[in-house]
């Protein structure tokens, strides 16, 4: 079961540059959350702060009841064992084959026997669809396979929280769809708390329970997916619809009068977008109670209850 992460009044700066300030949100245990935002809004910095790699100027990050911003290095090391992280490029060792890459955390942080390590590595490789590729080097496989190998490595210590740093970067739309389905399937199987940083709007509409949006050094919104998708907040509507009219500009700053004029020209019709169907675990994946409830709700909303990538 995943654990809850409670963030209160978090502020991060580099020198005089404020990255974001007074960020408060709760990532519910076992749920999938997505953090959106234009380039340069500090989404990756937020992930690194959650796992204790960066120290904030103010605020708290409580993981399993412990404020990681105040922990000593030894205690922080213990809390980090709750986390698995999928970095943008997979962060694989180029000289190691996939098996050894995925086995690395087990050899480094546990005293398990090689036979036990083999069982765990093959189990995780099977979960991400990489059985048969154990001997391949990272340079010999596709970007999508490297992401899956990085995900298998993030899973080997059975983390209760998994952070995904732009998992869709460098992937074509088809591979993104497969990766999204894999994320949903994994959440149903291991019930960990997921946080995904992404630019991909289709993923944000289909995959998470909760969505947040960072803009202009602030968390504009964070809440249930349905609430954010139906929001009339200008920056949220602009980002989710991928249009030029609105507060987000090339340099992220627009004159207020210009924004007002642009928004006045948009005919929203006064109606919210039709809700996007939620991605559900694929065939053969057992649905725990939380996912059964989601499937029933989707069936009521869309008349199906089966939504596949």
Beta-strand percentage? 15-25%
* Net shape: globular
Radius of gyration: 20 Å
End-to-end separation: 25 Å
The averaged pLDDT comes out at 87
Q: Sketch the topology as an H/E string, one letter per element.
A: EEEHEEHEHHHEHEHEEHHHH
- Derived from helix and strand composition plus strand pairing, the structural class reads alpha/beta
Q: Give the total of beta strands.
A: 10
The side-by-side strand order for the widest beta sheet comes to 6-7-8-3-9-10
Helical coverage, percent range = 25-40%
Main sheet overview: 6 strands, mixed
Weakly predicted, low-confidence segments: none
Number of helical elements: 11
Structure summarized in a few sentences:
By secondary structure, the chain is of the alpha/beta class. It is built from eleven helices and ten strands.
Question: Which helices and strands, and how do they pair?
Answer:
Layout: E1 5-14, E2 17-27, E3 32-36, H1 43-50, E4 58-63, E5 66-67, H2 73-80, E6 83-86, H3 98-109, H4 114-127, H5 143-155, E7 161-165, H6 173-190, E8 193-197, H7 201-206, E9 210-215, E10 218-224, H8 225-229, H9 234-241, H10 256-265, H11 289-302
Helix pairs in contact: 3-4, 3-5, 4-5
Your description of this structure?
With 309 residues, the chain is of the alpha/beta class. The chain has a domain at 236-272. The chain has helices at 43-50, 73-80, 98-109, 114-127, 143-155, 173-190, 201-206, 225-229, 234-241, 256-265, 289-302; strands at 5-14, 17-27, 32-36, 58-63, 66-67, 83-86, 161-165, 193-197, 210-215, 218-224.
